[in-house]
Amino acid sequence: MHPDQNLNYGIIGNCKSAALINKNASIEWCCLPRFDSPSVFAKILDKKKGGDFGVYPNDKYEISQFYLGDSCILVTRFENDSTVFEIIDFMPRFQNEKGDYFAPPEIIRFIKPITGSPQIKFEYDPKLEYAQGKTFHKSKKGMIVSEVNHPKHDSLFLYTNLSHKKLIKQEYHKLNETLFFNISYNEKLKLPTLSKCMLDFDKTKVYWMNWCAKTPVFDYYNNQILRSAMTLKLMSYDKTGAVLAAVTTSLPETIGEVRNWDYRFCWIRDASMVIRVISKLGHKRIVKNFINYIVELIPDKDQKLQIMYGINGEQQLTEEFLDHFSGYENSKPVRIGNAAFSQKQNDIYGILMDAIHAEMKQFPTDFERTEEIWSIVKGIVWVVKNNWKRADKGIWEFRSEDLHFTFSKVLCWVAIDRAIKIAEIVGKDEEALKWKPLKEEIKNDIEVKAWNKDIKAYTQSYGSKYLDASVLLIEYYGFVSANEIRFKNTVKAIEKELAHNGLLYRYKNKDDFGLPSSSFTVCTFWFINSLIKIGEVKKAKEYFEKLLSYSNHLGLFSEDIDFESKRLLGNFPQAYSHLALIDTALSFNSVGKI
Asked: What angle, rounded to 10 degrees, do the helices at 268-280 and 222-234 form?
């Protein structure tokens, strides 16, 4: 595989929006002012039309890219025999004097000479509103303004100490001193200067170092845990507490095919799993924000949860196509919005209830909204009681018929199990007692109908012969214990049937789009975690080390990995992949010496 064909991007962000920067220092994806706004740079989705901010030296250089220590400040270093320069990119985030977080919708970029005087030209080419209309650039006093008037009016402001003429005409510049670029969605009332941008840099660096210092230090895989935790933090939307599945749209699960979705939304399942793992690392603020987001989403006691919402709690996420974009490596369609918002998936209740229970256990004195949360818990029990016997779309969002998915049924059991535990925490023992027969009924139903005697495993759905990686989570959620023979046999059956080239299929039965040629990254982490639990630590470690080697150059994972080439595919970076990496690494740490 050619190295340029991988997702060789770093992510920067500030919990309001994010940007992806290619290994060659080109900013190729960014939506402003928020994660889910129309793009200002989208070269990742169309090399010609998408728009980017590229850097082009007139000489050959070795390029390396890395994060500055424990931070989300990205450095791209250009080096040859006589010359070295660095490009430093970040989005400001730090606390101001009032204690609020300063996180403006902007990118700051420095170009810093280290040795020699390189000649560089810049291609600053934002294309606003998903490049649907023509973006015009003009130099005004102290700034370059980019404007578009179709499909609606929008603008972007650039402040820099580089000559505007050189930038607009893409002329070479001899780099003798540090250049700064401040790309801002809002017009600045005070003109940015190099020293002001440097101050923002210092404050942002301190913010990330402080954030990382709150994370425990682990004996094994500490760097991977920390980088994954920071990446998850970047995918949290501070304003509401929503957690995004990924910061991109329409990066394909398979090149040239149509499994391309918009992931800039908050899936209750993914977000609850992120919150559960982040709470294990002691980061209270993200947890509290997400619980508030959930409380705000469910105003009525009988309201059923959608599987996903917009980052500001929007319920309608109508899917549209951007036909003018060719797509990532010509993989069409490019979608914005996601039709899956209307699907029914019964597992989300259990996953959310599990997250709420984990928080109440972890931070018992910290819930100002306990009464509202207790209302939600009772509401969820009511919904599960009335719906658990029904078929649904399942965790993998099959777009065809509904089935009785084992994972969904197990998570209905989890919902009632955790509701009982929460009732005990808040002193509602009578409710706990009342719900216990329902918990037993669901458990018995699963044990009888999901177990396949011939295959000796829990299968994908009731009466099915197909295996499914999601079933591995039954131990994680406490439905079975790791030493039960049924669980051990299921792990072995899944390895035999779904493992391929060191990675796992989600399932092998044909879905709406045929058999996938790529592996859903999270499934391999679940499998490795299951191996650790059943005592096969050595084998688990071999799988884990191999899987870690498939990350990109910065340790980041997307949604999928191609079975043959090991190329990263799907939306990026993927919250699911990174939360499962942390969980698996924590399991290795819990078994002691590995």
From this structure: 130
Cα dihedral 143, 144, 148, 152 in deg (nearest 10): -20
User: For position 1, what pLDDT does the model report?
Assistant: 44
Neighbours of 177 (CB within 10 A): 10
Residue with tokens 């050959």: 60
Asked if residue 197 lies in contact with residue 108, where contact means CB atoms within 8 angstroms, the answer is: yes
pLDDT at residue 514, rounded to an integer:
63
Contact 161, 181 (CB under 8 A): no
Q: Is the peptide bond before 118 cis (omega within 30 degrees of 0)?
A: no
Domains and CATH numbers, the chain: 7-212 (2.70.98.50), 214-590 (1.50.10.10)
What is the SS3 assignment for 6? coil
Q: Is the pTM of this model over 0.90?
A: yes
Round to whole Å and give the CA distance between 371 and 343: 29
What's the pLDDT tens digit per position in 548-572?
Answer: 999 999 999 999 999 999 999 999 9
| Tokens matching residue 483 | 């030493």
Q: What is the pLDDT of residue 302?
A: 67
The mean pLDDT value of the chain amounts to 94
CB 96 within 8 A of CB 104: no
Cα(241)–Cα(73) distance, integer angstroms? 23
CA-based torsion, 245, 251, 255, 260: positive or negative = positive
**Is 379:297 a contact under the CB 8 Å cutoff?**
no
Distance CA 184, CA 17 (A): 12
Residue 403, phi-psi category: left (phi > 0), alpha (psi -120 to 50), beta (remainder): beta
Question: What confidence score (pLDDT) does residue 5 get?
Answer: 62
Question: What's the count of helices (H) and strands (E) in the chain, helices before strands?
Answer: 15, 28
